[in-house]
Predict the structure.
Amino acid sequence: MRYYFDVHNGIGFTRDEEGQNAADISSARRIAIESVRSIVREEASKGALDLRGKVDVRGEEADSMFTIAFIDAFELLLPLEGP
């Protein structure tokens, strides 16, 4: 099945017109997470880390099937506060 990965981030909205084939919804979820990580990696290389975006995943005949928030594509390990 073909899935489409629409990106919403600090740059704006980018609609995926081409899509990608994936065997099932789990494979589409992995593609979406890899896409988020690639986008954030590119932004981080320029000194910015904006995790406020999301990727909406659509199927061939459906509106949004699911959403991956940028922040959910990572395990965040933050510094401990205190002395």
